[in-house]
Design goal:
Number of strands: 12
Helix content: 40-55%
Enzyme class: oxidoreductase
Pfam families: p450
Largest sheet: 5 strands, mixed
Number of helices: 19
Radius of gyration: 28 Å
Bound molecules: protoporphyrin IX containing FE
GO molecular function: C-22 sterol desaturase (NADPH) activity; heme binding; iron ion binding; monooxygenase activity
CATH class of the largest domain: Mainly Alpha
Strand content: 5-15%
Keywords: Heme, Iron, Metal-binding, Monooxygenase, Oxidoreductase
Protein name: sterol 22-desaturase
CATH superfamily of the largest domain: Cytochrome P450
Length: about 525
Amino acid sequence: MASFLRHYSSSIPSPSSPSSPLADIRVPSFFLPTSSQATWLYTTLAIVAALLVLEQSVYRYKKKHLPGATWTIPIIGKFADSMKPTMEGYMAQWNSGALSVVSVFNMRVTFIVMASSNQYSRKILNSPTHAEPCLVHSAKSILMPDNWVFLTGKIHVEYRRVLNTLFTRKALSIYISIQDAITRNHLNQWLKDAAKDSSPKSIMKTARALNMQTSLRVFCGNHIPEEGAAEISQKYWDITRALELVNFPLALPGTKVYKAIQARKAAFKWLEMAAAKSKIAVAEGAEPECMLEQWVKELQAPGYKGRKDFSDREMAMVIFSFLFASQDAMSSGLIYGFQHLADQPEILAKIREEQYRVRGNDIDKPLTLELLDEMPYLKAFVKESMRVKPPVTMVPYRTTKPFPITPDYTVPASSMVIPSFYNSLHDPQVYPDHDSLIPERWLDSNSSANTNPQNYLVFGSGPHKCVGLEYAQLNIALVLATASVLTNWEHQITPESDKVQIIATLFPKDGCLLKFTPRPKP
Ligand code: HEM
């Protein structure tokens, strides 16, 4: 009772304000600071205020004259924006200057310099002594910190030398029959499904499933059982969902990164097994039928000079890095390929004409590299489709030391620098009528598109340029070519069709609603 009275001692009405309605409100005394509490409170407030001022000052000191918000939102910066990125938001940022600044989750590596011009984007990509890829923040936990993709310098160059042998023409000629067979199976299934329900359906899931199946069989052949391929395919979405520019920093159960790590663990189990089985198959004299076997065989080639021993885990990590780098980008490229062709039937008609001519009307004949060599219009379309809607619009890099990117601006060490590709790929000087899809611009060797190859940044540039670019273009071309002769497809255009959603890569906002029907043989 005594303590109760002490706590409510301030409830004694004040004589100075007898008529105030507030006078009757009883305030517990613990809300009224004693002198030592007051000192503590004011000191804390002063420290917080000083930190906030420091944060703003550091931000403005680093930002210097570059475009970007004058003040940064305390602590989190533009974290909320980065959770739901929009193309419009990015474009506003890119168009604000060749270099511009944004800050996200301040006080971590959160000072970000965005480069939108071709000159600065390429400078970042080609300055390995100043900047290296840092992928998105979650990538290290998902891919494993010792994954080869995090290597830099000489050791990275050496690793890539081996990996380049997995994408030679000889290697691609092994993969193409697998790609052709899987594509036909999936297209037939799409037709069967459409026969049961003819309403237009989003191809987001079906195209992703086709890509995953193709990748797994090209990379691992039959060394992964159906059950393993299904598990990786089904869990892979958890990995895509964790690829945000900024994630919740701790991989606590229930977070996207946690789920992605579980998905990676499941995938690793199967991929390590596939690596082990490939070694056995080649040791027993098998000719390579997939990428892993091609790799093992290459290591034994008499002329091969590089490192000869790769553990099952290292090989699994490489294959996983390929899945990681390709699944979303390939799906984006393929889905926009289907959408662009449906929306521009005159281009689809030219692709079909080339297909029938080069295949001699035999549409059951599997595609080969030699046949594809004779299909320049198809290749030009694939290149142009990805120019108009680049699957990857930017790649985060991190400065390893102060980076004097222009004579009057040095990016501070440990900042994120993000080369963006969109403006290079839509530069009206290089690509007249830049928003229109015109495959012909790639068919004229003197066109400004062909004479300015430095602008075509769809696959990046410099030491980390996409290792799978030939394979990627080949696969998208093969799927669209085969679909064009086996099927007809109609696009249900919605108000969202031309809007973009960013799920690691770019996709039509409505998921691209298509209706497939069988196409009669010629
Ligand atoms: C349309 C499909 C694809 C697109 C648009 C694409 C785009 C890119 C881009 C922009 C980069 C970063 C380059 C840089 O930092 O300069 C990259 C890197 C990479 N890509 Fe691709 N990619 C695609 C498909 C593939 C495929 C199919 C594979 C493997 C089979 C692959 C494997 C990789 C790897 C391993 C890297 C990192 C290379 C390194 O750090 O040395 N990509 N890709």
